[in-house]
Design goal:
The protein has 10 helices and 9 strands. It is α/β, with parallel strands linked by helices. It has a single domain (about 15-205), classed as TIM Barrel, CATH 3.20.20. The strands form 3 sheets. It has a 4-stranded parallel sheet. The chain has a 3-stranded parallel sheet with strand order 6-7-8. A two-stranded parallel sheet has the order 4-5. Helix 7 links the parallel strand 7 and strand 8.
């Protein structure tokens, strides 16, 4: 998708499912279940051998979905995601090499940060939207509130420890446009192919947000 920006990804929906797909054949069924539940942006983590093929299958079948990759660690990961029709990438951390590559390739990246220093590095490279990870372990709500003072124009998608019990607290913060989490599509339910349960989890979570 041309001209897509990280801010567009964050604004697409308040909840971005963090997905681990073990079997490629589950990809389209899962995407359909998430769409039925009102989800329009997916983060498929590069933690399994089937992740890239799953991204390609979903992006080909559901062009209106924003399908991206998580657990992006190196510049070559960005290229592999793009070559498999992914339209954005999310990293758990931040490195100059990864930031430079994202800018050079003009490929949308949501870099992960957990400290003000990492945030300032991202700002130096022209980034203004970040993944805050691991959210709960890195200070959670108090940390994000503290960051809003010196960095009022920065926006976050907190991920890591986000669940049905606390996601609304994060979404109530002005500097959080969305949250990432696996509670709406647990790996166990994907393995058991309980698509209706996943749809219900999505609908119920979005209804509250």
């Amino acid at each position: 998708m041309s001209n897509l920006k990280p801010i567009d990804v964050l604004k697409k929906g308040p909840i971005i499912p963090v997905i681990v797909i073990d079997k490629e054949d589950d990809a389209l069924f899962l995407a359909e279940a998430l769409l039925k539940g009102g989800i329009h942006v997916l983060e498929i983590t590069l933690r399994t051998d089937t992740a890239l093929s799953a991204i390609k299958r979903i992006a080909s079948k559901f062009p209106d979905l924003l399908v991206g990759a998580g657990t992006v660690l190196r510049p070559d990961d960005l290229l592999r995601v793009r070559d498999n029709l992914g339209v954005f990438a999310i990293s758990p951390g931040i490195t100059p090499t990864l930031l430079e590559s994202s800018k050079w390739e003009e490929f949308p990246l949501l870099p992960g940060i957990s400290t003000p220093s990492e945030l300032m590095m991202g700002l130096d490279f022209g980034f203004s939207e970040f993944k805050f990870f691991p959210a709960e372990a890195a200070g959670g709500l108090p940390m994000l509130k503290a960051l809003s003072g010196p960095f009022p124009d920065v926006r976050f998608c907190p991920t890591g420890g986000i669940n049905e019990g606390n996601y609304l607290d994060y979404l109530s913060l002005k500097n959080c446009l969305s949250v990432g989490g696996s509670w709406i599509c647990p790996r166990s339910l994907i393995r058991e192919r309980k698509w209706d349960e996943i749809t219900s989890l999505c609908k119920n979570s979005l209804k509250r947000s």
